[in-house]
């Protein structure tokens, strides 16, 4: 029998209330928790082992974190089989000044991955954001010609992909090209992107061709957010179908996975079913689930039982779905390692979006996910 989800939420909420009322004589917990064990005595199975029969499990990282002399480096090596550069492979990081590439940070990440037997997802080659102005504008501030823009894009993609040929196994070739906040579904492409304004939508096609020429073996992805909403998933579907119909080399779709604790299971499943019909690989490329129900909810700086309950519900639902689609999902990457470092934090409002806490220890939600996988 399927349990109605809203009933589960209500049940959980009342359990939380009863628990907090009956908890007046608090037992002081034993703080000497043995390494690798939570106070429940549960053994931690590293994420990459937990999911090894299903998909690679990754994290977005900074160069400072990719260092075995740090807790972050040790955690990466223990839990993750794949890394993505949070920023240092973006166009403005690699080629801020035209013709002058700065490789050291990206090289460091790639070396860390090699030393520790991890895969690297390359992120990203073509994007309207975090790209240097010279890719878009001349010295008068006018948009470049289509020819010059394409030549520069080709040069950038060819240089970057060639350097990391055989080291980067999958590239986000184009990031966020589709328009959203458009429930009527009228506008297909993000028309405020300089790429679109200079070239039209075929800049997407060209980027994939340049990437394939530079590395015939890399997996080439289109990556976007809000992809599970009906209006956006249909646009992504149409665009990828167009590419495939025109023999443009695309291997997969990246769903960023900046989801919410109340994200709809049906939306995720419908999207995965739709994309499955395109015969492409799927990767969840930037997973994080902040603890709030909406942006209106007041912020907090301490992780509480309500947050924990919400995340248990959300993460177990999400991983249950992802496991159901593990024949097409090849990588699930978190957009960070632990709750100490996330783009979602604001002053007075922490997001706590991961399975590992601010000290990089497994949260209670981690053990729920672990149980889920073990029971399948
Ligand atoms: C997008 C980009 C990422 C990152 C996140 C948030 O999803 O693809 O590179 O910038 O936003 O920081």
From TrEMBL:
<dbReference type="InterPro" id="IPR017853">
    <property type="entry name" value="GH"/>
</dbReference>
<dbReference type="InterPro" id="IPR001000">
    <property type="entry name" value="GH10_dom"/>
</dbReference>
<protein>
    <recommendedName>
        <fullName>Beta-xylanase</fullName>
        <ecNumber>3.2.1.8</ecNumber>
    </recommendedName>
</protein>
<dbReference type="Pfam" id="PF00331">
    <property type="entry name" value="Glyco_hydro_10"/>
</dbReference>
<feature type="domain" description="GH10">
    <location>
        <begin position="41"/>
        <end position="372"/>
    </location>
</feature>
<dbReference type="InterPro" id="IPR044846">
    <property type="entry name" value="GH10"/>
</dbReference>
<keyword id="KW-0378">Hydrolase</keyword>
<keyword id="KW-0624">Polysaccharide degradation</keyword>
<keyword id="KW-0119">Carbohydrate metabolism</keyword>
<keyword id="KW-0326">Glycosidase</keyword>
<comment type="similarity">
    <text>Belongs to the glycosyl hydrolase 10 (cellulase F) family.</text>
</comment>
């Amino acid at each position: 029998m399927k349990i109605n989800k809203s009933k589960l939420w209500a049940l959980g909420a009342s359990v939380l209330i009863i628990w907090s009322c009956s908890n007046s004589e608090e037992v002081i917990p034993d703080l000497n928790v043995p390494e690798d064990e939570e106070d429940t005595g549960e053994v931690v199975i590293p994420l990459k082992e937990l999911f090894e029969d299903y998909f690679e499990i990754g994290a977005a990282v900074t160069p400072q974190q990719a260092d075995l002399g740090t807790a972050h480096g040790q955690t990466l090596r223990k839990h993750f089989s794949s890394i993505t550069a949070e920023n240092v492979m973006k166009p403005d990081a690699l080629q801020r000044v035209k013709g002058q590439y700065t490789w050291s940070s990206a090289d460091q990440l790639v070396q860390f991955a090699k030393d520790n037997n991890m895969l690297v997802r390359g992120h990203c080659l073509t994007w309207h954001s975090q790209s240097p102005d010279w890719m878009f504008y001349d010295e008068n501030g006018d948009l470049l010609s289509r020819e010059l823009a394409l030549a520069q894009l080709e040069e950038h993609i060819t240089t970057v992909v060639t350097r990391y040929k055989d080291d980067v196994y999958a590239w986000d070739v184009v990031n966020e090209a589709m328009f959203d906040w458009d429930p009527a579904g009228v506008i297909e492409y993000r028309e405020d992107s300089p790429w679109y304004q200079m070239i039209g939508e075929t800049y997407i096609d060209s980027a994939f061709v340049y990437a394939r020429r530079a590395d015939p073996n890399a997996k080439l992805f289109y990556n976007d957010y809000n992809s599970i909403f009906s209006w956006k998933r249909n646009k992504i579907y149409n665009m990828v179908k167009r590419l495939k119909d025109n023999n443009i080399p695309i291997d997969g779709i990246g769903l960023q996975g900046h989801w919410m604790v109340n994200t709809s299971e049906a939306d995720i499943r419908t999207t995965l079913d739709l994309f499955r019909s395109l015969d492409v690989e799927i990767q969840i490329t930037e997973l994080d689930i902040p603890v709030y129900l909406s942006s209106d909810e007041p912020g907090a700086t301490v992780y509480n039982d309500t947050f924990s309950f919400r995340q248990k519900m959300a993460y177990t639902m999400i991983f249950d779905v992802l496991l159901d689609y593990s024949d097409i999902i090849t990588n699930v990457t978190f957009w960070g390692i632990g709750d100490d470092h996330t783009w979602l934090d604001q002053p007075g409002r922490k997001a706590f979006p991961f399975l590992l806490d601010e000290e990089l220890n497994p949260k209670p939600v981690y053990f729920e996910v672990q149980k889920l996988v073990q029971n399948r």
